[in-house]
Amino acid sequence: MKRLIGLGIAILGLWSLPVCAEAVNIAPGITYEQMVRPGPVVMHVLRASLGEASLAPTVAAGGARVLDMATLPAIVGRQGSGGSVAGAINGGYSLLQADQGAPIGLLISDGELLCDPWPTRRSCLVFGTSGTPRIESLGLRGTIVGIDGRSQTVSGLNRPRLPGELVMYTPRFNPATRVRDAGRQVVLSHAFTEGMKLSPGAEQVAEVTAIVDGMVNVEIPADGVVLAGSGAVESWLNQRRVGERLTFRFDMVPNLGPVRCALGAGPRIVRDGRVSIEAEQEGLSVRLNMGRQPRSAVGISGDTLFMVATDGRQPGYSIGIDLAELAQVLVDLGCTQAMEFDGGGATTMYVRDRLVNRPSDGQPRALASALLLLTTGRLTDVPLPNPTVSGGGVAPGTPDIPGTNPPVTPVGPGGTAGAGELARLGVEPAELTASVGETVPIKVTGLDAQGVAVPLDLAKLSYEIGPAGAEPLGEITADGAFVAKREGNGRLTVRLGDKFTTITVRVAKSGATPVTPDPGGVKPPTNPGGTTPTPVTPNPPAGDLRPGQGVKREPVKVPEGRRKTLDGFENIKHWRLGVLPKDAPAKLELVDN
Question: Which residue from 487, 492, 526, 544 is spatially nearest to 510, judged by alpha carbons?
């Protein structure tokens, strides 16, 4: 196994004299402190002694469903049992799907298995039933067996299905399966009684109640699951019959015994007390080349858990940190094991009743998961040191309202821009859609506070393509065009100094149009008679149809005498132009044919 050992030794001289605010006791066993180092770099550190009986770490999903996302204050505000939230930090990566985000990596909350360690065996923070933390590289093995004794591997749980895979969707995923490609889906009911959870190592028995073919959003039964597959696995799915009883289970690899909660992200950055950047082994080598960024990490020293959030992308306040520097910080804190969580605009830390860091997006970003510290002890009312945030938490001089996050307008050291000064960046298109291999020009303009264009040095623009932790969706050419490289959804952030704008990016397969399935879902018909029900197919998207996607119909023929000319297109004043979203670039003009 390749490891990058010892990075950070050359920077010890620069990083040896941190300026630390005095640590504040937040609750029994929990302290919070800020550290400022040359750069400047501002770091926020939560230290939790898990030997304290009143303290319990827990992992929370973004919402009630796996695809739900919420800001860290909202996730904290939703926590209803197990004690008060003394502190929290953002969790793992997510893959955007329209307005929702599928977690990337293992997710176990309160013993319930929510997502598999996808796409590879990356580092996971794991808590057993004893509460002792550990960092492991984990896999998940799923199997399902039919009445004929034939077994089939289940490749994934509650995440996008790749070609040739069999993926299982539980009620915690979403009301419907949100499939993106044609295939076969088998609905299994009666797997769970009320209050029952899908847990690693537990065997479940369920009954086939429906079989649906095509690119269909199938409703997930409240007491069951849906199997979705294509390619080679369809031969196994084709053998299933309504009324058949199937047995399935998921096992952790390696088997760690009962797991109370787990959160996957990566890469590992500290092993056995030494800097060890293992991004290449975990398929995250792109993270090595991102330089100084806002970053989040978690470290372990015995039964002490460290949560570290580093602000960045804000010259004059905090420029961020690279992986080697972050790893060295955790080693200096005494950690023997450590791993990185999601970073960039996702980096957020919450302490007691507010956000304590300054998110680089200007306000908290919606998250797919978070790590929370719960306490049944008394929260202190000691003032937090040097609050760094006037928004995204509670503004100075106003009442503390847990869970609020008013918007923040990011500005540089000079304060708010005036007339004729750069206040924000305008980017066209407002939403970038492309197919793999396609090149889309990007137009960036500078605007002052009144929306008037100001001169812009395009050579100083920088571009960041998300989601973090995954292979880039594409690249930006020297003349500022986006070249689509792989299918998926994410973000493109255009930045100049402390000013930035983020737009959504959707990349479809080569030659295809990006498709967003109807999230409402189609309830599959049940058929106790044992025959395969008629597939129900939603309205197809624009473009050529694919097998299972819909039905082509002949155009409606209007009798000659019934036709009526709506307009001769001779005068443009009779026409009006409307766009959605409102800021999408568009124009209406009359041209000669």
Answer: 487
- DSSP state letters, 158-218: SSPPPTT-EEEE-TTT-SB----S--EEEEEES---TT----TT-EEEEEEEEEEESS--B
Which of 318, 322, 319 has the alpha carbon at shortest distance from 291?
A: 322
Contacts of residue 325, defined as CB under 8 A and 6 or more positions apart, other chains included, come to 8, 11, 15, 41, 292
Cα–Cα distance for residue pair 523/250, rounded to 1 Å:
26
Please give the angle made by the CA atoms of 208, 214 and 217, to the nearest 5 degrees. 75
Contact 6, 275 (CB under 8 A): yes
How many other C-beta atoms can be found within 10 angstroms of the C-beta atom of residue 269?
32
Q: Is 556 exposed, middle or buried (0-12, 13-18, 19+ CB in 10 A)?
A: exposed
Beta-bridge partner residues of 227: 168, 186
Amino acid at 428: E
Cα 74 to Cα 188, 370, 390, 523: the distances in Å are: 33, 11, 17, 31
What span, in angstroms and rounded, lies between the C-alpha atoms of 10 and 1? 24
Query: Is pTM, for the whole model, over 0.70?
Result: no
State the distance between the two ends of the chain, measured CA to CA, in whole angstroms.
65
Other Cβ atoms less than 10 A from the Cβ of 475: the count is 12
Closest alpha carbon to 122 in 262, 7, 330 = 262
pLDDT, one tens digit per residue, over 300-352 is 999 999 999 999 999 989 999 999 999 999 999 999 999 999 999 999 999 99
Give the sheet arrangement for strand 453-454, strand by strand. Answer: 424-428, 443-447, 453-454
What the block records as the tokens of 188 is 């299994």
